[in-house]
Design goal:
The chain has a four-stranded antiparallel beta sheet with strand order 4-5-6-7, with no helix packed on it. It has a four-stranded antiparallel beta sheet with strand order 8-9-10-13, with no helix packed on it. The two termini are 24 Å apart. It is 0% helix and 26% strand.
């Protein structure tokens, strides 16, 4: 479970099921990770186990607006990043092949950086590609794809970029950044992106492989 505690911080916890397999045992909570949050937004999100068996955790940049706390490009914080951890033993361990292991400038838990609010993401059940819906600031929403053969370490650009566009600057240095595969603007009443799934069902063959 990924939830916001009563003091406003992020908690990643594990629960056992109760006698009812559709209900958790509230007394069985074992905390995996706690992370202080500086603001009340950009908290929460889903949790996804990847094809590799590791737990992926999308973390917002700490909230407020405009990356006020400077977390999007800060490898010393777990905010503004996609994390990848091994929860076979509690609280957790670091996969040896995480991209920044041994790099003193970036936390070992980090799989990718430069995200603003990736609160829903999913793996294509056929290809293993990771799809990340990242909520933009005021103008552009974006979709990022990390190929299944990636070894991690991508920098998705926030707050240097918002979608394909420089954020708060006419020109910016995009060297080393991974651009989104798609964006849309807020024109015409479009709202923040939710993120979704690649359809792999059998009922609608024409939708096979479409990201919804």
């Amino acid at each position: 479970m990924h939830y916001t505690s009563l003091d406003g911080n992020t908690v990643i916890s594990r629960f056992n099921v109760s006698d009812d397999p559709y209900q958790a045992d509230a007394e069985s909570e074992e905390i995996v990770l706690m992370l202080e949050q500086p603001a009340a937004n950009h908290n929460g999100g889903n949790l996804v186990f990847g094809p590799d068996g590791y737990l992926y955790i999308g973390m917002g940049d700490g909230g407020a607006s405009g990356d006020r706390y400077g977390n999007g490009q800060n490898g010393q914080t777990l905010l503004g990043a996609m994390l990848r951890i091994d929860v076979d033993t509690l609280p957790y361990s670091i996969p040896a092949d995480n991209p920044f292991v041994g790099n003193p400038e970036v936390r070992d838990e980090i799989w990718a950086i430069g995200l603003r609010n990736p609160w829903r993401y999913s793996f294509d059940s056929v290809t293993g590609d990771l799809y990340i819906g990242d909520v933009g600031q005021n103008i552009y929403e974006e979709i990022n794809i990390q190929p299944a053969n990636s070894s991690g370490g991508e920098n998705y650009g926030w707050p240097i970029m918002e979608g394909f566009h420089c954020y708060e600057a006419e020109n910016c240095n995009t060297a080393g950044l991974t651009m989104p595969v798609a964006e849309y603007s807020h024109e015409g009443g479009h709202c923040s992106i939710t993120g979704g799934y690649v359809y792999r069902g059998e009922l609608y063959p024409a939708m096979q492989g479409v990201y919804i």
